Structures are given as C-alpha cells and as structure tokens.
Amino acid sequence: MSWLELIAAGLGIVAVWLTVRQNPWCWPIGLLMVLLYAWLFYDWRLYSNLLLQLLFAGSQLYGWWQWTRGGEQHDGRKVSRLSLASLATGLSMGALGAWLLGYLMANHTDASAPWLDAALTSFSLVAQLWMAQKRLQCWALWVVVDLCYVAFFVHSQLYLTAGLYAAFTALAISGWLSWRRDPALRYAP
C-alpha cells in the first residue's frame, strides 16, 4: 500500500458518493482518481486495468459534459431508465467487448487473467456509459462488476483497492436506491 493508492482510493469514495447525490463535481474528482490509478496500474503491471483507467478518463469528461450540458434542453441529464431493448443492446455490447478483448489478451499477451479482466473491463465501460447518461440500471451493473472486482483484487493481493471496490459496491446499492426515488425518473426515449 502506498500513499498514492490511499489518495486514489479516497478520491474514488468521494467521487462515487457525489455521483449518488447527482453532484456534477463527481466527474472532475473521478478524473483525478482514474489518472492516479492509471499510474498505479502501470507500476503494478496491470495493463488491462491501466487501459481501462485511460478509457475512464475520457468517460469522466463525457459524463461531466452530459450532466452539465447534455439532455434535450442542454441543461444536464435527468435520471432515466433504459428500455428493455437498450438494456439488451448494452449488455450484448459488453459481452462482445469481453469476448474480443479476452481473445486478444489470451492469445497476444502474458495476461494472468485475460478473460476475467476483459469481462470486467468491458462491462465497466458499459456501466460507465450508462452512468454518464444517468441511466438507473448503471447501478445494478456496477454492483455485479464491483463484487467481481473485490474478488479479483483480493486474489491479486491489492487489499486496499479490494476494500475500495467493496465500498463502491455499497455506494452502488445506495445509488440504486437514491436514483430510484428521483422524482424526474422516466423511461429514456
């Protein structure tokens, strides 16, 4: 455990807590967190997770824009539910991404857990996209992904990061409950 990991984990907790509260400051704080984790994953030689953090950096900027200027009136997104078709499309894209990335990692790298790492990476990107668009279902997907990450990081002996993902799981449950009560909740077009 390093001070950098401790700071990144703390920023992660703050960022997700602000997300639950629908505070747009979650995005710049999240951006700082993912950049710190990118550096840490580089040092730890977890290159798929490094790639994920770099993709998350771009999604932090996208989410910040969506929450402050997105939506029909360009006044920020409101919480909405995915249609069944959109939900199925997103999960199918996650599965396809997991298969493609897993195949590449299994056949062209020395990755220690190519298929699991690829699946978690792919479905994290789907959840992150849904979060940026304020889709309620992002939280259910985050619960599943975060629980898998807890086990993955415990196995990798990255205990502080495993603890962070356990906290993310609790916050995702809180996010689901909070966003479900949002008076603006509706189905997305």
UniProtKB/TrEMBL annotation:
Which family does the similarity line name?
Answer: Belongs to the nicotinamide ribonucleoside (NR) uptake permease (TC 4.B.1) family.
Pfam families reported for this sequence: NMN_transporter
Q: Does the keyword Membrane apply?
A: yes
Q: Which UniProt keywords apply?
A: Cell membrane, Membrane, Transmembrane, Transmembrane helix, Transport
Q: What does this protein do?
A: Required for nicotinamide riboside transport across the inner membrane.
Cited InterPro entries = NMN_transpt_PnuC
Its membrane topology: Multi-pass membrane protein
Q: Which domain of life is it from?
A: Bacteria
Please give the name of this protein: Nicotinamide riboside transporter PnuC
Where in the cell?
Answer: Cell membrane
Residue spans crossing the bilayer: 46-64, 84-106, 139-156, 162-179
